[in-house]
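[Solved] Which block belongs to which protein?

Original post:
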Amino acid sequence: MVIATGFSGPETLGPFIEGKIPVIWMFLLLTCRYLGLLLFLPGLGSGASGIAIRYPAVIALSWASLQPDLLSEVPSNLALLVLAMMSELILGTIIGFVPRLVVAGVNSAGQFVSTAMGLNAGQVIDPTTASQSTEIGRILGDIAVLMFLFMGGERAMIYLASGAKQGLFPGVFVIEEITIDFLIRETGNVITMGVLLSAPVVVALLLVQLIMGIISKAVSTVNVFVVSFPITVGVGLTLLLFSIASIIRVTEKEFKRLEIQIFEIIVSQQKKSN
């Protein structure tokens, strides 16, 4: 009796699997790559509750990206095997982690604004990162995630990770100086982006505090501590509302810039692998 799977009995199972080892190895490398990607990619099942979304997506994307006619060579020893798997995990992590840095930069802008308004004492637990954050920081971070999804950023990152256009096949990625410099620069850009986005509101609030200080000196009967807090919060929220449009524009430009730079890094890897 012929079995539908392509082998005639249990005695041929070993040779059948042995012939599929390159395909299995390619699938394993793609699984490592997409695992690193979806663990950090913003907006796709973040937090512990997203496990039910991430892991099935890893298997589905790995299967969809599998190209049986373009297979990488299986390493000859265990050390090279583990190294190849780790390099793919790192590649996926880089592609997924870099957009999260933009979200962190917008979130830090909200933190700076909250501090200037005197609202940093009322912090909440962010369920996506299990860390403390102010309400304004969390709201701005969610706006950045929504912008990422509306722009199709998750599809662009998945497409880059697949290597379909660039020809970056599993097992050839190597961390180089250009990649390390890129990560260091973008990590430092988190604070820079937060300061630039929050600067208009923070400067305006400092001027409000200066004016309130002058008033307290001119009219000593005014209780500045009681009067200044609602004024500071009101002015801060009003200016922040008018700044949302510019924050969205800057965030959109940052996401587009990062996509281009990630693409250039992958292309450089592909050229060296050839």
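(Second protein starts here: sequence line, then its structure tokens.)
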Amino acid sequence: MTPWQVASRAPSSSLAAFLALLLSGLILPTRAIAETVSLRPSQDTTITRLQPNRNHGEEPVLKIRALFRKRTLVQFDQAAIAAAVGSGTLRSAKLRLTILESHHWGPEGRAVAVHRMTQAWTEFGATWFCPDDRNLQNHVPDCTRWFMGVGGPAPFVPTPTTRARHRNGQTGPVE
């Protein structure tokens, strides 16, 4: 699992804990008194259109690429979020990503969007074609397929939750 930094909590109700893209943290502002709670993702992986039957769950760095060629999936445990929030109400959450390397994003950079996942997936089974491929060794989809943008309904909410502009040479944390 990738090392992540997450912060903050606020009293909360349930929150769907599936999020996509290179995220290094979930920030949950809580209670009337501001507090910060760090939560680590329970699962993370990168999926790629160019290697659609390959899983990247064991890789230490998550990657994104332009033109939907690579997507990062990050999931936070609902029980951990509920415990961090306690009996209050979740008012907001922030995602913090850390950029380690940045090139080929064009002179103006590009927007990187975060979408809430609507379908469950597994860290060591998710591929471009499958939320949980049962046999990664045979290089064919062994699952009920999902569609990462083409050919059917996407397994994520089409409207992004948030966006951030990513530029060449940019490194460090981004919220």
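Accepted answer:
You had them paired correctly. Confirming on the second one: The beta strands are 18-20, 26-27, 43-48, 70-75, 94-95, 97-99, 110-114, 162-166, 172-174.
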